[in-house]
Amino acid sequence: METPNWSTVTENELWRYVAWHLEGAGIRSVLVGGAVVSIYTKGIYRSGDLDIVPDDFQRPKIAEVLKSIGFFSKKSRHFKHPECDHLVVEFPHGPVEVGEQYPVIPDEIIVNGRTLRLLSPTDCVKDRLAAYIHWNAGDCFDQAVLVCRVQKDRVDLQNVADWCEKEGGANAYVRLAKRLSTPA
After folding, report:
1. Domain 11-118, CATH
2. Which one of 26, 29, 130, 154 has the lowest number of neighbouring Cβ atoms within 10 Å?
3. In tens digits, what is the pLDDT along the chain, a chain of 184 residues?
């Protein structure tokens, strides 16, 4: 895997680089959060951090892999590359959940012979709506709208509607559907 240009690396490029190295060390992981929004919106939204949930949180092994590719530990689960001022990598504990939905089956892509995982477009929308429903995070609602607009053929809106109902946030789906019915 080619080393990215650290001064211009995107969330997508950094995720692929880090996850590829983790996978090579036997650490399966799933990208969640705002970086997934950045990927699915093709950079329209920029996150500033990557939340990578390892299947098994083995901090010493994760730290060893990241050190081998030039990262240092900023805090207990935060890592930074000294040449990358604009992005940080965080390793929250799992399992991956979207609100009360568990398990979550991530999308998989093959990069240079290794399988990398991230939330599907539909689960990304639900993840952002979970923050809106439970913490009234309006910026996360806007991110859900962006993903729906850019990935319109890949977001299962009926799945999102059903999930919102189960989460106690049917009004969030009504608002989403209304926003999607108006021009951007």
Report:
1. 3.30.460.40
2. 26
3. 999 999 999 999 999 999 999 999 999 999 999 999 999 999 999 999 999 999 988 889 999 999 999 999 867 789 999 999 999 999 999 999 999 999 999 999 999 999 999 999 999 999 999 999 999 999 999 999 999 999 999 999 999 999 999 999 999 999 999 999 998 7
- CB-based burial of residue 69 (10 Å sphere; 0-12 exposed, 13-18 middle, 19+ buried)? middle
CA 54 to each of CA 85, 139, 166: distance values in angstroms, whole numbers, following the listed order:
24, 26, 27
- The interaxial angle of helices 170-181 and 121-135, nearest 10 deg, is 120
Helix (H) or strand (E) holding 72: strand 72-73
- CA separation for the pair 111, 128 (Å, rounded): 26
The per-type count for the chain, helices as H runs and strands as E runs, is: 7, 7
Length of the chain in terms of residues written: 184
Strands 49-54 and 88-90: what pairing?
parallel
Residue with structure tokens 């001022």? Answer: 85
